[in-house]
Automatic annotation (TrEMBL):
Main location: cytoplasm
GO biological process per UniProt: microtubule-based movement
Cross-referenced Pfam families: TPR_12
Record region (Disordered): 183-263
Composition bias, Polar residues: 187-209, 219-228
SUPFAM superfamilies: TPR-like
GO molecular function: kinesin binding
Phylogenetic placement of the source organism: Eukaryota, Fungi, Dikarya, Basidiomycota, Agaricomycotina
Places the protein is found: Cytoplasm
Cellular component annotations (GO), alphabetically ordered: cytoplasm; kinesin complex
Name this protein carries in UniProt: Kinesin light chain
Amino acid sequence: LAVTYHDLRRFTEAKVLQEEVLKLSKEILGERHRYTTMASSNLALTYHDLGRLNEAEVLQEEVLKLRKVIMGEWHPHTIGASNNLANTSHDLGRLNKAAVLKEEVLKLRKDVLGERHPDTIKALDNLAITYRDLGRLNEAEVLQVGALELIKEILGEKHPTTLKISNNLKITSDRLQKDSNAVVHQGNDSPAPRTSSPLSGIPLSTRTSAFAYAGPPADSNTVSNRPGTTGVLRKRPAVSYEETDEDGDPEGAAHIQKKKKTL
């Protein structure tokens, strides 16, 4: 039911159910059970959709720590947990932390999946977005050019992932061109536009796009709880999140439901 509420973008109702599932999972299966970490990860994504980013980050840090112990850092679900935490950190403006996490995700995906796997290519683009927002535009463009070439070969030019990466590359290239023009203006003694952050001067609608993860699309407009942005509607950055449905094994869920009826 919580999944259905989430699909309907009824995030508050989904949150209530997911909090109950997580509580029961901890009581019945224990904190270190893989289904418990899945429940915690899914609740964190709902917190993210509600704009409760700090709470989402706390849960995701806990999930990552547990998965490293239970599954090992090379396991796909551990890598996915690191990816989710990186994206939440990015959304909170903790770009250096996000960059470190995304660099690790990219390295692990290359080692585990290979350079030509779509998830590895998405990790390239994901890292490039953080580099771009840090002002590391040349590095971002190099990553996105490589990602676009690979994804075209593997998925084709019209695949949604290809189109998303192409759009992200265009945003980066436009930023580079804008900065280049600013340097020319400065050389002509014309003041360049003042910026207070790597994102200044870029309309929100052009530097963000659909929120994406390996599950149904979430609400693209949420209220940020980031300091100084209370009540500000924002769109999801074009990064990849993962809804950790694990191996699809319903054993944990069924066990919890059975126990719940007898409580």
